Structure formats: C-alpha cells, structure tokens
Amino acid sequence: MTTEELTTEVQKALEEIRPFLNSDGGDITLISIEEGKHVKVRLEGACTSCSVNQMTLRAGVETTIKKFAPQIETVVNIL
C-alpha cells in the first residue's frame, strides 16, 4: 500500500469514528503516519479533558484504524 493509499484508509477510519466523538463534543485530527505503521492523532474538544479518552483511543480509534489498515501497529494521541 502506498503512503497516499494508507493515508486515505486512515482518513476513512477517522471519518467512521468521528460522529461518535462529535456526539460527545469531541473530534479527532490525523497528525502523521510514520514508517507506514505508527499513527499520530490529536483528540480535540471535549475529548481532551475526558477521563476515558485513552479507552476511546484504544478501543475505538485504534481498532477502527486497524480495521481499515491492518499494518498499523500503534496509534498515539499527540497533545
């Protein structure tokens, strides 16, 4: 998968999860994809102060991204 294709797949994954984040006053932005397997995102809005944002990142965001792009190994939130 090319870098452009990978970026497209990760963006599709974020679009799938975004409505759930938006419903709680949050959002997410793709910051970068490094080495084709490490994704950096920024949780925004209400997600920044939410006590369960790490669970959302792992159970929601990371799982969804890996469904679209199985080669992704890690997803981290950049503050």
From TrEMBL:
<protein>
    <submittedName>
        <fullName>Fe-S cluster biogenesis protein NfuA, 4Fe-4S-binding domain</fullName>
    </submittedName>
</protein>
<dbReference type="InterPro" id="IPR034904">
    <property type="entry name" value="FSCA_dom_sf"/>
</dbReference>
<dbReference type="GO" id="GO:0005506">
    <property type="term" value="F:iron ion binding"/>
</dbReference>
<feature type="domain" description="NIF system FeS cluster assembly NifU C-terminal">
    <location>
        <begin position="10"/>
        <end position="76"/>
    </location>
</feature>
<comment type="similarity">
    <text>Belongs to the NifU family.</text>
</comment>
<dbReference type="GO" id="GO:0051536">
    <property type="term" value="F:iron-sulfur cluster binding"/>
</dbReference>
<dbReference type="GO" id="GO:0016226">
    <property type="term" value="P:iron-sulfur cluster assembly"/>
</dbReference>
<dbReference type="Pfam" id="PF01106">
    <property type="entry name" value="NifU"/>
</dbReference>
<dbReference type="InterPro" id="IPR001075">
    <property type="entry name" value="NIF_FeS_clus_asmbl_NifU_C"/>
</dbReference>
